[in-house]
Amino acid sequence: MLEMNFEIARHNMIEQQIRPWNVIDPVTLDALNAVPRENYVLDEMKESAFSDVELPIGHDQVMLFPKIEAKILQSVQVQKTDNVLEIGTGSGYMTALLAHLADKVCTVEIHDQLSQQAQEKLTAEGFDNITFVVDDASKGFEQNAPYDVIVLTGSVPQLPESFKQSLKKGGRLFAVIATAPVMEATLITRVSSSQYATEVLFETEIPELENVDHAEAFTL
Q1: How many domains does the chain have?
Q2: pTM > 0.70
Q3: What span, in angstroms and rounded, lies between the C-alpha atoms of 203 and 140?
Q4: Shortest CA distance to 168 belongs to which of 192, 202, 134, 132?
Q5: Full residue range of the structural domain in which residue 55 is found
Q6: Could you read off the pLDDT of 110-153 as tens digits, one per residue?
Q7: Helix, strand, coil: what percent of the chain each, to 5?
């Protein structure tokens, strides 16, 4: 009965929160159906796993709103052959969505405990295409670059250039850029060795990556 309740809650999340946010890509919706979000929240939060809220996961970190996670996944259009970099493992849920669709995922988390907890959950779910790294990647992460897809799960005041340089030609990068209260969810596509296409997808506000550089934010 409990599992059936989760299935109903998952269906309602998709129909009431995610589709109204213009997330209609069938591959994205299938991934949201396939990956059990309830397995990546704290035990005491399971009943809220599909609510339209940010959920605490420890270390002052949160799971993002389900509709934002869905928008991220739809925007980067992960392919089965893609090599993906995720900055901020967090609960491991976005990692699971990416790994469900990609060939391989490298996920970097600054908190060792969060990384270990996510690894345990993802291994239990049967994922074997994920590399877990504990590191501060707030200014970039070049190991195993270039990548087809890069996702930053926390915001940055400005995007470090090294992230763009770590994209393959044709690669897609999602980041929420700027400072509160107005941040822009942005998709950057590498067109050539020196050219990038930038598309602002929507305005939002999410927590910053730890240790981001604010130096340029105060430059006139």
Answers
A1: 1
A2: yes
A3: 23
A4: 192
A5: 2-218
A6: 999 999 999 999 999 999 999 999 999 999 999 999 999 999 99
A7: 35, 25, 35
